[in-house]
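User: Please write out a complete single-protein record containing the residue sequence and its fold in token form, without commentary.

AI:
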Amino acid sequence: MTITTRMKSLAFGTSLGLFATLGAANAQETIKLGLSIPLSGAGAIWGKGSEFMCKKAAQEIAQAGGVKVEGKTYNFECLAYDNKYNAAEGTRVAQTLLNRDGVKFIAGSLGTAPVQALQSLSERQGVVMFTTAWGSSIKGPKFPLTFTQMNTAFEIIPPLIRYIHGLHPEAKSVAMLNPNDATGRETEGVSKKVWTDTGVKILSSDFYERGTTEFQPIAARIASLKPEVVDLASLPPADAGVVLRELDVLGWKGVKVIAVGTGVDGLKATGGNAIEGVYMGAAVIFDGPTATSQQKAINDEARGVLGESLNSIQIGFYDSVYAIKAAMEKAQSIDPKKVGAVLADVSFTSFYGNKVDFYGTGTYGARQQMRLPVSISQVQDGKLVEKSRIVPEGN
């Protein structure tokens, strides 16, 4: 982090701290919201933006008068710890949040492996947990206190691949690459099925270890297969950019896909011009006609702190705070089990500007998934352009 960025981050934190102090005079209690997120490594930008958005929502709620439950007013405080995107650190963070800090609400958790570690404690201890994790194994009737705050592989990948296949029917082969962890493996399973169902031949499906810095051998193997599509489904921006750059050096030309592609800035930092034409399924466009003035203002503030625009992962940490507020006020309780019992029945105004409820019975057997729009975008002339927006249906 540069000195300038650090100073901006501190300034933002100071302003939030000052506001929280002023708000405390009018609020009887503060409710801690835990965050298990990567704050170092290739996924750090996702984690830092997630913390920013949790604090932003908490600030707005306090400014609007707080959470009203049984005649009392509550404010939120966001506590973030670095899970380093792995199970071991995820376990440490889970123990810190739940056992040391006494957190009863997780406003967001990122990474399937660390989330599984957290969930093993949260469900047992009666803690409500929101997560961005893509794995279907963490949802369903067995996990009544777990809810998803962003679109996952099951919501993004089918419409994304079908859209791309419709534009490029001549592309008959694909090479896939994912991180070698729970997120990557579950994503690979979804992508493989959809590509196969569309009649595209899978030439390879490889995995790499998070923390890898040398991608030339991986890119060389992919290029040697001469695929017409390369699908970097769940790679974080820094890694995906390097792979695309190496493929470009090797002369590979084809259709580029990043299902969890969340924005152009981080991708361009490592990929340069090689990112041109990439299709993404998790990015958010802030300079298009669908962006509201509030979204643009918050995004501009985030860019000043983070150095890049917000994405759907980070926005989920804003929406989850409002979902928790709505459920507390509906239940008229701050007991996590009572709040969790009504969460599936609430609706709230999302950062996207529309009312959001919960669905997912058909996919997960329970309404634990926020009904969020799926935005399909493409890098054109170095900028993201929204190509299609789909609002999921069903229960």
The chain has 13 helices and 17 strands. Residues 1-27 have pLDDT under 50 and may be disordered. The first strand starts at residue 29 and ends at 37. Residues 154-281 form a domain with the Rossmann fold fold (CATH 3.40.50.2300).
